[in-house]
Design goal:
With 266 residues, the chain is of the alpha/beta class. It is 26% helix and 26% strand. The longest helix is centred in the C-terminal third of the chain and has 15 residues.
Length: 266
Amino acid sequence: MLEAPNSEQVLVTELVSNSVLPANREAIELTTSDGLKLVGELALPISARPKATLLLLHPNPTGGGMMDSHLFKKAAWRLPALADVAILRWNTRGTCSAAGRSEGEYDKGNAEGLDLAAALEFAKSRSLENIWLVGWSFGTDVTLMHGNVDPVQGAVLFSPPLMWSKAEHLQTWADSGRPLTALVPELDDYLKPPEASDRFAVVPQCEVVAVPECRHLWVGEKFVRIAWNQALKRICPQLPELSWTWDGRMDRWNDLTGGVSPSDKT
């Protein structure tokens, strides 16, 4: 715990892996054009109007991916307070998490495009602006296949495997000119930085960023911070790099209870 350099000696606490900061969080339900109900959550800054809206597309549910995969739940826990951004996340069809199970069945990134379309319609219905997509692993393929549409401003890809998306999908991004950034772990299991640079070369505006020592799952607080610092640098370039500290109320997530344990700090 640090002391801020002023006479009031406000206590500044560094975040840890289960830190949960204040936000207006709402359990939501998305309805797809083929009639499925998807579970999700919208997290908004407490008082400020969001500087951006991040739609999070999770890893493959066949490998345990879900809206609560660690990079994404930590974004929802922290970024509305730290960066004044809105976080919209959901379980794609057939995916289950602590929030519940979305209807439907996994479709290898194809019908998941309807799930993304439903999330975009929801964001528009709430008048959320400056919409960016952030995909991780399988979610990057869904982004590349279906996310090059209005009102999307651009996309950031964590660990893109380029497994389901094809050359024609990359070409649509090249044609649109929408900003695209691929954050590629040096030790990725599927696509390492040199190959990623070759394959994304067809998208002139795509920035491929190699992340040293990182693996596909971005395990560890160090890599969580790198991921979101790099993403926010593209999405909200006016923001200073996050300090990952907080001087107000900070709760802690408790896996045993499936909820937060209130902090004594107010």
